[in-house]
Specification:
Layout lengths: L1 H24 L12 H6 L10 H4 L3 H7 L5 H38 L6 H28 L8 H20 L3 H15 L1
Length: 191
């Protein structure tokens, strides 16, 4: 029984390792948000996504430069520890962004926005993708540090961007009176 548990643990570890290796080498490029997302971003504040230096946070060049200097190795370890804490806080902000988008979606549905099965399927698929990458990235950063999969966070931002685009398309379907109702309800939800 113990052998089975160890084998299962090793298999899960290897699966996570290959998943992050794939994400790091996948070459996910973030696109600029389409014009239809702009009305959504005027209503919903996305604090984690607005941090434009996330790419630099996961970049190992500063760390490697300090680590190769014998007198600066302690500074390199401190930099890595500080960046790890900042990255975990940033991940929390990005998770809060998803929660805000989900809360906004519920308000849209309460105000009578019409949605279809394809949109709901895409939202579900992107939410599941977000949560899987979020959990894997959080565990990965805690166990192995930031610099092992330097571009994995782009998959997280890409799924959040797709969710924002889908919600913006739903927002565009509202009449002006429904839009005013959404704005009022969102303002109440934010306070």
């Amino acid at each position: 029984m113990l052998e089975l548990i160890v084998l299962l643990g090793a298999a899960l570890f290897l699966l996570a390792l290959f998943a992050f290796w794939g994400l790091a080498h996948w070459g996910i490029e973030l696109e600029l948000p389409p014009a239809e997302v702009l009305p959504l971003t005027e209503l919903v504040t996305l604090s984690g996504v607005s941090y434009r230096r996330a790419e630099r946070l996961f970049d190992a060049r500063d760390y490697r430069f300090l680590a190769c200097q014998p007198r600066l190795q302690a500074a390199a370890r401190e930099l890595e520890r500080d960046r790890r804490q900042i990255a975990l806080r940033w991940l929390g902000l990005v998770r809060n962004d998803l929660c805000n988008l989900e809360r906004f979606r519920r308000i849209l549905l309460a105000c009578g926005v019409v949605t279809d099965l394809k949109t709901e399927w895409l939202l579900l698929k992107n939410r599941v993708s977000f949560h899987v990458v979020y959990v894997l990235l959080s565990v990965w950063i805690r166990l192995f540090g930031l610099y092992v999969a330097p571009r994995a966070h782009t998959a997280l931002l890409a799924s959040l961007g797709r969710i924002s685009t889908l919600l913006a398309r739903m927002l565009a379907r509202l009449s002006p009176t429904q839009l005013d109702e959404v704005k009022q309800l969102w303002a109440v939800a934010q306070s």
